[in-house]
């Protein structure tokens, strides 16, 4: 099955007997809505380690394509797909690649036209890509993957539980004399309610509201995200619930103003999430320009591309004013920095994808940023 040993055959293509018919051997299986007939064999080339050869036929197209998959780093040949129907999608090609390399399931695969280029989308069609009848794709391993739902549930449940440990002053935190005691300051109890409400809201939105365009993310990211959320939750909870905590300088007036900011921004954040949810039908990756609805909280779409981030930052600013706690202020600053990066990225994507995108919108702060 070696092209070099076959004497003059096309490089990288195995000599598959023309008399072999996979459908006579029971090799027919279904790949989604497309029938697949395949044969897998080893091709020990002279240039490097064995490559997998998959003889596949997707559909009944008259002009079949050949797909060669190389390692993006080493340029080693990993797989050769013969008789691929031009209407095949990248998702279907990933499924075929998995048959020869089961350790790389589709969610781990990044296929691209250039070793350093962007990943192709699963819905991209082979014949619409800038390739000829023989397509060369470059593979990168994205590493072990975990679902976005699992990530969000983990990173949001942690702060909720951790904060309550400090609020109830469980043993070994503040000393034996303060075990399970309660603060005499109303703002401490109010802060616990606000903090708990925020993360319960996030958990419920993850389960019932959000629709994710990407099903998974790298497993390693969950450790980074949890360190950020859990660490800041413990830091701010330690000081807010400390027996020596002092209430805000301006007393009840400061607390009431901050509470109003927090509640308004939480309602606004939820309203934006619902509006974004309605833009994308369940199970699809459709992208549309978000516009304001009859809900007044969505009118911020007139000025910014990502008002959900604007409201999120506003919520934490309100919480920082309410508690007058430095760790909360630092958490708000770090969160604002990260959300600004995300907002700018989404804003650029909107401008690139939609020619009629509203020109007056800014990424996160009206008229400024």
TrEMBL record:
Pathway: Lipid metabolism; fatty acid biosynthesis; Sphingolipid metabolism; Lipid metabolism; sphingolipid metabolism. Residues 67-141 form the TECR-like N-terminal domain. Residues 216-369 form the 3-oxo-5-alpha-steroid 4-dehydrogenase C-terminal domain. It is found in: Endoplasmic reticulum membrane. Its EC number is 1.3.1.93. One of its GO terms (biological process) is very long-chain fatty acid biosynthetic process. Signal peptide: none annotated. It catalyses: (2E,7Z,10Z,13Z,16Z)-docosapentaenoyl-CoA + NADPH + H(+) = (7Z,10Z,13Z,16Z)-docosatetraenoyl-CoA + NADP(+); (2E)-hexadecenoyl-CoA + NADPH + H(+) = hexadecanoyl-CoA + NADP(+); (2E,8Z,11Z,14Z)-eicosatetraenoyl-CoA + NADPH + H(+) = (8Z,11Z,14Z)-eicosatrienoyl-CoA + NADP(+); octadecanoyl-CoA + NADP(+) = (2E)-octadecenoyl-CoA + NADPH + H(+). GO terms for cellular component: endoplasmic reticulum membrane. It comes from the Eukaryota. Belongs to the steroid 5-alpha reductase family. PANTHER family: 3-OXO-5-ALPHA-STEROID 4-DEHYDROGENASE, VERY-LONG-CHAIN ENOYL-COA REDUCTASE. This is Very-long-chain enoyl-CoA reductase. It comes from Equus caballus (Horse).
